[in-house]
Amino acid sequence: MPDRLDKRCNHTMIYALGNNGAKYLSGELDLPLSTINWTAKNSGLKNGFFFEHTLWVAEFMVMVRLACRKGKRLEFISQEEIVNSRRTLPAAPSKELGFEVEVLLRKDQRKPYTVPVVPDAAFGLRRLGSHNEKEEMYFFFEADRATMPIRRASLYRSSFYKKMLGYYHAWKTGGWGVTFHFKNARVLTITTSMERIGNMVAMGKEIDPWKKGLGMFLFAPRASFSLDQPEKVFERVWIAGNGKKVSILD
After folding, report:
1. In what order do the strands lie in the sheet with 186-191?
2. pTM value?
């Protein structure tokens, strides 16, 4: 557990899947065995920072799955399905969602910045119409615990502004269509406060050539969601690049 937790208190235990457990479930449920080394993957959970970040990601993905079960005519598209549909599979499982994009900020810039983008998670939604026609929507997910600066003076250091630049230019240059089987996606970010969301929206307007805000980015405070009411992930609690509240199903 994270060091900041009081050892005298009782807390819910959280178990992580290991390699032997993965093999067992693969056989019992007739599922393909992933190439992920679960033991190595779980080693990062000993660090309190990565522990809480992993929980944020896992909880949100569980909420989306539960919301799909409650919703009408909605199917969940898993991250595994998205990764397996990549045109070229990555050599390392830890980079299964990662890609790089070249960014030019000025017309006179001689050499573009190479910006790596590694989403925290990805998923899709398949919506069935009244005549059983299918519409697919894809999303990248970021769990922002306010530990990363919104912006730094240099693009060679990590910042949320750098993340947004990478996502935007991946869309602008068609980079998603090269890496994945879809050309468009939205980036969902949950974070700690409305103040931080305001700063992120401002960064999006700065990136937008028309300065109106980018619709591909949607933000929400983590406090808006709970496992008791997973359907809220589909409600109008997300703040778009123009500052208006929207649903990810819009």
Report:
1. 74-77, 121-128, 134-143, 186-191, 217-221, 238-240, 245-246
2. 0.85
